[in-house]
């Protein structure tokens, strides 16, 4: 039986390396045969990479994976890979319509680890941040107007603009499903001016999938939750103790307990889990509570105390900028450069976590800190040393 599936290949970043226009790049790919492969290194366990000449040039759009069970088919293929073909440029996305034939392939059925839906926080009921409330109100308004065919440019434009600004904060399953429904309903809208807004909704995917944007949004969510918790604590309405938080963490499914210590990837982990809104809130509140308790107990033990000489505020800002967005091994290498250049007397892992939060596991940190040459990081180490020495000279000039 013929089983041909059409889908969008998205995330086309390879063209940037070739310094060509994205539209020209897409046109040059039409008709080429590519290989679909399960990307086992991706934070999204269902990610299917689209490769050409051994290079990843894009990914199967997650919505297509879910709707057509492409993940299941690929996992049923030899080496979890299969051939596909680029057939046309997408009219909505900066992407390529791709076709794959899964004839005679039996899709693998996967039994996912169940999420603990009745797990919760005993001390108080978590409440959503205001941005989530607003995002829900805006989404409900747009879908209602479209459903009742009461939409026009005047009443949809302000809602779309708000939605575009807040969409990157939407981690829940409900938001993901609503975003796909909004896209479909806009495409079906009889009002052509409103229908054009589908392009804007499609472009939001690029913003949401950008790692830097997602890190910022995750930190913003956690910051807002921390403010809510502090308000409740200061009002005396709740009391939270370390043992309470430890009990909550122990109730988490194992993969959450393992991943929660790595902020640089946990935002991706949560995004792709697509948890129901109320369960997502529980997990985020526990993570923030855990961070608050650890921070309160170790404020006196900061990496700042290891800075040699003056300009502590300036060096703290430099260090924060240097490690922001990097993986834990690179962070270890970076801190070794600060130590060897005389800015820090030492850079213990525990104090790094106390100061900057869950940066990653200590073993990988120490590999970067102590074995950066073995990890082929010598060039990066030298690069950081040059930057640090340059900043030291600037500080000396300011002192004069």
Kindly report the average pLDDT value. 83
Can you list the strand order of the major beta sheet?
1-4-3-2-5-6
Task: Give the helix/strand class.
Answer: alpha+beta
Give helix % range. 55-70%
Structure in words:
- 57% of the residues lie in helices and 10% in strands.
- It is an alpha+beta fold and 400 residues long.
- The chain starts with a strand and ends with a helix.
- The longest helix has 25 residues, at 211-235.
- The chain has helices at residues 14-17, 22-29, 62-68, 70-75, 130-147, 153-166, 173-188, 192-195, 197-209, 211-235, 242-250, 254-259, 263-273, 277-298, 312-323, 328-340, 349-356, 362-370, 378-399; strands at 4-10, 33-38, 48-52, 55-60, 81-89, 96-101.
- It is built from 19 helices and six strands.
- The relative contact order is 0.08.
- The chain has a six-stranded antiparallel beta barrel.
Keywords:
single chain; 400 residues; alpha+beta; six-stranded antiparallel beta barrel; 19 helices
Secondary structure topology:
Blueprint: E1 4-10, H1 14-17, H2 22-29, E2 33-38, E3 48-52, E4 55-60, H3 62-68, H4 70-75, E5 81-89, E6 96-101, H5 130-147, H6 153-166, H7 173-188, H8 192-195, H9 197-209, H10 211-235, H11 242-250, H12 254-259, H13 263-273, H14 277-298, H15 312-323, H16 328-340, H17 349-356, H18 362-370, H19 378-399
Antiparallel strand pairs: 1-4, 1-6, 2-3, 2-5, 3-4, 5-6
Helix pairs in contact: 5-6, 5-7, 7-9, 10-13, 10-14, 11-14, 16-18, 16-19
Short characterization:
With 400 residues, the chain is an alpha+beta fold. 57% of the residues lie in helices and 10% in strands.
């Amino acid at each position: 039986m013929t089983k041909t599936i059409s889908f969008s290949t998205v995330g086309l970043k390879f063209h940037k390396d070739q310094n060509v226009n994205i539209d020209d790049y897409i046109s040059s790919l039409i008709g080429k045969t590519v290989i679909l492969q399960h990307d086992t290194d991706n934070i999204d366990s269902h990610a299917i990479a689209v490769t050409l000449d051994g290079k990843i040039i894009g990914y199967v759009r997650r919505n297509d994976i879910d709707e057509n069970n492409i993940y299941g088919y690929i996992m049923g293929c030899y080496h979890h890979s299969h051939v596909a073909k680029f057939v046309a440029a997408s009219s909505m996305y900066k992407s390529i319509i791709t076709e794959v034939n899964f004839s005679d392939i039996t899709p693998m059925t996967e039994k996912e680890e169940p999420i603990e839906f009745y797990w919760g926080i005993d001390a108080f009921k978590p409440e959503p941040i205001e941005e989530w409330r607003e995002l829900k109100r805006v989404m409900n308004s747009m879908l209602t107007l479209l459903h009742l065919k009461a939409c026009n440019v005047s009443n949809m434009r302000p809602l779309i603009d708000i939605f575009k600004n807040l969409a990157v904060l939407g981690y829940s399953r409900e938001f993901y499903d609503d975003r796909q429904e909004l896209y479909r309903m806009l495409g079906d809208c009889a009002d052509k001016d409103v229908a054009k807004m589908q392009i804007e909704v499609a472009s939001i995917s690029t913003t949401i999938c950008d790692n830097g944007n997602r890190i910022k949004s995750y930190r913003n969510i956690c910051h807002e939750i921390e403010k809510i918790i502090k308000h409740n604590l200061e009002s005396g309405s709740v009391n939270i103790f370390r043992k309470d938080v430890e009990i909550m963490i122990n109730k988490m499914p194992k993969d959450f307990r393992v991943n929660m210590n790595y902020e640089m990837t946990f935002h991706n982990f949560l995004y792709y889990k697509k948890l129901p809104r109320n369960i997502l809130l529980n997990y985020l509140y526990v993570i923030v509570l855990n961070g608050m308790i650890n921070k309160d107990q170790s404020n006196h033990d900061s990496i700042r105390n290891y800075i040699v000489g003056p300009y502590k505020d300036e060096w703290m800002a430099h260090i924060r900028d240097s490690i922001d967005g990097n993986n834990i091994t690179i962070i270890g290498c970076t801190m070794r450069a600060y130590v060897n250049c005389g800015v820090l007397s030492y850079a213990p892992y525990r104090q790094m976590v106390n100061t900057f939060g869950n940066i990653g596991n200590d073993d990988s940190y120490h590999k970067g800190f102590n074995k950066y040459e073995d990890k082929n990081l010598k060039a990066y180490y030298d690069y950081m040393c040059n930057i640090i020495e340059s900043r030291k000279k600037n500080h000396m000039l300011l002192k004069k």
